[in-house]
Structures are given as structure tokens and as C-alpha cells.
């Protein structure tokens, strides 16, 4: 278990819980209970039942014929885009809302950037009849109007984060402040493998269903349960954590984490944290993050709203530092072209986040019999206007 | 004797003021300290601004953002404070989030504080166990008192652990909240103040969060040794400027 969190939530030097005393009780309550609750047979039964009947799991592992012919490898797409609400995010919100109920919490808060995690949280709150408040940067609210409308239709209250840069990191700050102000009845559903321990480990465990299914599906299709490569995009890193999880200790599986290079890694408009980041503390976790020399957190950029987080989860910082995963950076242009190529060759419109993972096909050469799994983390419906504007 | 200890022994309720360095203007740090001392502040917490102050309400957030926009940095703050002990004799603490301190280098930061004559540090997101394991020895080497926070939700067991690790005062957060969000103190806060007083801790307590006028100062210090005013002071600074610092303090003590 070298690549997973130790009992204090550290992945090598990264992770931990750097939180103010005001959050101690809630985070500690979660830390002490999450594994016990998650391991209860009844919890597992309820979780997997909902994943099957409500989310639509297992999601297919699709052999992409035309991509495979073009890139001369066996390319499979893990179809998280077919999950209810359109992305992998709901795997985690189902798990956490079940935990919240067991902890007796009645009020759910969440942060969201592009709105996918917000929609997934609003959805499970509607399902469970819980109050839901989603914090979203004022700028993101303007950029992602359809998802704001979806959250409201699902009964959630969307509160604008007007501090700082008014995007995802500020929405996260606001959610944390809400939790400080409401320590008794509130549960905070974090959407990625970020934040104080136990969140990175807990979210990775809920998302690990992705790699559990990949193993089983590959065994059926290829007669082996490990691929040669798993490729996933990384913002905070939840879909990558889920797709890598059961392969972390299998050294023969190449893990490729794809970050958003925006307009170019060194253009000043990028979200390539592994290249541009230094070790620091963000949202209660010690990890790699983009910051000024003075330790002020800087605002990242990517055409994809789901990848412009200034840090990465501590698991990914550890995978990067230990060289267990290879980190690649893909620009806006490369991602948009890869997204369009998938539309034309396979009839699938990917989320722009996931298109970053697809763009690796142009950069990496594979052997002819290599089995390559790309995690198609979300669908592109939410990105139609961005695609249309870009290709105009 | 550390000046904080000396101050805590005085037979009076202490007023401590928090302000954000670099706000409202970049070079206001020293003039603000002078006026605070002249007008009877017992102790000052100099806020090192951070881009993402997650335990702070809108007032301190805005002052931090303004200070950073003005060009405040850790290095510049130390330059401003270089000769501060020629004029300022009341205890001085630096309050800031951990990331900027980490980037400066924890040991270099502590060394610089000692050189200038800073007496203590308040770092809300440096947790107890990390402090004890990794940084306690460094802080102590440079004679810096690390001040921990407790809240109404902090268990007695944890309060005792915090008391054992503290060697100055305990920062008693008045209620479950970010800074600057409390109107006044109700019964539950009074009960909490009383409960902590009855624990007979070795470190005196100073109440912060929600103290903003004479009434709340008196309520907070009925059981505690002193109180800290932050957001209300910054608001006054923003609205009435530096000239009104004396007027503001007179309304409290």
C-alpha cells in the first residue's frame, strides 16, 4: 500500500490535515468513522445498489476501433461519460451522501467549478431529501449557466463566491467557511481528491470503482486484468485517482496523468501544476500548488473549467514525485482537436476535461499490441458552446 | 522574561488588536503600531496577508486582498519591522496562514522574527500534532510563543493537550464562526467562557472573534484575561482612517 495514504493521511510527504481548530471536530469525526462506515456490508450494499440502478454502472469499457486503427494500439475508453449526470463525479457524491446520513447530518454543502460536482451533489441531495447549498465562483456562474440552471432545478441553492478570483478555489474557501460557521448539522461533500485528510483517501476509494470495473472488463475482453497504460486527466484528480487506484501497486501498468497546459505551460495561462507548482498548503492539504514566490496561491487557466485548480490532490503529488505516474501537459488547442477527433471517429462528444486525456494519443507512441485505457470522465454536452465558439 | 508573559501578569484585562499589514496602505504598518501603543493597546497581532484566508470573514479577506494588491510580502513586512523595537515596547505577534511561512522557510521565518523582536506566532492552519512533531523545537529555539486556538467545540481533553503545549495564552474563539461574523455574545457563549475559566488552565485565555465594542469586550473579559479585536478595528480603519485609531480604542477601554 505504498502509494495510498497512511493513517495520518500522508502520501509520502504530501497530504495531512492543515486545518484551523474550528474544523477539527468535523474533520476528526469523519477521519475516525469513514472507514468503519464504508466497510459495513449494509453501506456497501446500498452504495453498489445505487451505482447500479441509479448511476448506471458498470459503465462500458468500449473498444474504440477507429482510434485503435489510427494509433496502432488497442485503445479502450472507460465510459464514465455515460454515468447519470454526465460524469464520474456522482460515484463520489453517492458515497459521501450515504456517509453524511449515517453521521446524522441534514444540511449538505459543496463547491463546484464547472458545475459537474455541483450537479452531482444537488442530484444525490434531491434523491435523499437533504438540503443542498453549492458554492460557485461568481465568474463560473456566468460561464456555466446551464449547470447552474440544472442545480436550481434539482432544488439546490447556488451561492456565488465573490472573494478572491471568484472561481473554484474561492468557492472551496467559501464552502470551508460555511462549514466553520455551521459545525453541527452540516456535511461538506468535497468533489475531488483534495482537502484535508480523510477526503483525498475517501474520494479515491469511492472513485476506485472505475478501476475495479476496468480490471474485470479487461479480463473478459483481453484475458488479462491489467492494461499497459491507463490515461486520465487531472485537475484536482478524482477521475485519475479512480482509474489508477487498483493499478497503483502493479508496476507494469503505466499511469499517465494529463494536466491542462492552457495556452502553453509557460505562457502564464496554464494549469500544469506538476511543472509550475511547488510544495505548499492549499485547502488543508500539503501538496504541489501554483503559487507566487511569497506563497500566495495563483489563479490557473485552462479552457476546461474542470481542470483549472491551482493544486493537485496529494496522491498525485506523490505519484509525480515518486515517478510512479508520468505527467504530461496538453494545451487547449491539442485538447480541442482531440475532442473533435473523437466526435468524428467514434461518435462521442467528450467533456473538454476528458479530451485532454485523449490528446495524449497524438503525443505518445505505443506498441501495436499495447492495451491502452483512456478514462473518458465526462460527456461534452456542457461544453457545446465552448466547442462551437472554438471551431467557428 | 518574554514580553507576553510580563503583559499577562499585569493586573488588568488586556486589549489586543489585530490588523492586516499593508492595509489600507502599503507603508501603514509602523504608523498603525505607533498609534496603537500610544492609545493603550496592550498587545498587537500583525496580520501577514494571504490570498486564501479560509478562517476569515469578508472584512479581513478584503483587507488581505487589498494588502497583497498594494504589494505586501513577507520580506517587505520584515523590512518594515526591522527597527520596530526602538519605539514599540508592547508584545507583538505575527498572525498568518502557514503557506507563506513555509515558502519563506519556517526556520528563516522564526530567525527573522527573533531578530526583530517578535514575541509569538498565531498560525491557525498549523495543527497541534504537526507543530509538536516538526516545528516546536524550532519555535522554542528562537524564543517564539506559539498560540493555539480553541472553540466551543474543542473537547476538554484536547484543551488540556493545547494547554500543555502552550506557554503564553490560549486564543479562545468565541463561537463557531469565521472572523467578524458575530453580533454579540449570547448565553451559550457566556456558558462557554465560564466553563473554560473553571478548567483552571495554566495559560490565561484571550477571547477573539466577535469582540467589537465595549460591551462585547466586557462580556468577553468577565472570565478571560483579555480580548482581541480584529474585523471591527479594520472596518474602522477602512472607514475613518488612521487618525481615528485613538478614538476607536477609547470607545473600548
CATH architecture of the largest domain in chain A: 3-Layer(aba) Sandwich
Distance from N terminus to C terminus of chain B (CA atoms, Å) equals 26 Å
Report the order of strands and helices of chain B.
HEHEHHEHHEHEEHEHEHEHH
Number of domains of chain A: 2
Largest sheet of chain A: 6 strands, mixed
The chain-level mean pLDDT of chain B equals 96
The assigned structural class of chain B equals alpha/beta
Please, how many domains of chain B? Answer: 1
Number of helices of chain B: 12
The oligomeric status of these chains comes to: heterodimer
Strand content of chain B: 15-25%
Mean pLDDT across the residues of chain A is 96
Question: Can you offer a commentary on this structure?
Answer:
- The complex is a heterodimer of chains A (392) and B (253).
- Chain A has 2 domains: 155 residues, Rossmann fold; 216 residues, Rossmann fold (3-Layer(aba) Sandwich), CATH 3.40.50.1100.
- Chain A is built from 17 helices and 14 strands.
- In chain A, the strands form 4 sheets. In chain A, strands 3-4-14-9-10-13 form a 6-stranded mixed sheet, sandwiched between helices. A 4-stranded parallel sheet of chain A has the order 7-6-5-8, sandwiched between helices.
- In chain A, a hairpin with a 2-residue loop joins strand 11 and strand 12.
- Chain A is globular.
- Chain B has 253 residues and is an alpha/beta fold.
- Chain B has a single domain, classed as TIM Barrel (Alpha-Beta Barrel), CATH 3.20.20.
- Chain B has a 9-stranded parallel sheet with strand order 5-4-3-2-1-9-8-7-6.
- The radius of gyration of chain B is 17 Å and the shape is globular.
- Chain B starts with a helix and ends with a helix.
- Chains A and B meet through helix 1, helix 8 and strand 11 of A and helix 3, helix 5 and strand 6 of B.
